Amino acid sequence: MSGCTAPIRGHRTASAEAECPVCGKRNSYYSSYSPNYNSSSSSHLSVSSGSSNGTSSKDRKKPSWSKSTSLVSYTPAQIKILTPVRENVEQRASTNSNLRDIFLCHAWDDRNGAAKELNNLLETNGVSVWFSEKDVPLGSNLLREIDKGLVKSKIGIVLVTPKFLERVKAEGIADKELSALLFRDLLVPIVHNTTYEELRDVSPLLGSRSGLNTKEETMEEIAKKLAELVST
Question: What is the domain-level CATH number for residue 84?
């Protein structure tokens, strides 16, 4: 068996080392093995990362009312929450084709902030919204106009904010709208900048209703889901 030539010739250059019957073969082995090892490791990490994302993606689904071209996905919990509302939408739409899509219930103090933002996003997605800022004529009876809006809408959404909770405590207009929406059982709470725990402290009945939350997804994403929900 040939021995290492380093003691005789030295390995001062790469070519000299390559000609050595011992060291040359050893380096050849590692050079051929190392890339495969790195490639395998890289591939393994890539697959693991993809698998994790894939699992998360599989958890989100499309409900029966979404169009085949829709890119919006829902959690199983959201589908469970919204399915009864969707059934009521279809029932009401079948008996009255002149309904507004959504009645937006909000605190008066949010009319130029979060409520306006949500209204604009819904309208951008083709939703017809009853919004007090544009649907209550000057000098009209506010409570009467609210009643009309509730009757003429497929569903109601309640924008639950800190200001809304204050209004409910004070039994203001928001409380009047809330009672009517709960009675109709066509309600989707949208929790924004607060929590369900705080909501339950103020209104256990409304707090018992699950809905959508801007802590979990953006207002834009919520608007798209509501748009699909009322589309008939």
Answer: 3.40.50.10140
DSSP 109: G
User: Taking a C-beta distance cutoff of 8 angstroms, is the pair 186, 157 a contact?
Assistant: no
Within-domain flag for 4: no
- Taking residue 209's Cβ as centre, other Cβ atoms within 10 Å add up to 17
CA Rg value for the chain: 31
Give CA–CA dist 20/15, Å, rounded.
Answer: 9
- Residue 221 reports pLDDT greater than 60: yes
- Higher pLDDT residue, 71 or 8? 71
pTM score of the predicted model:
0.71
User: What's the domain range around 47?
Assistant: 14-57
> Interior CA angle at 194 toward 189 and 167, to 5°?
70
Would you state the structure tokens that stand for residue 215, as one six-digit string?
């802590």
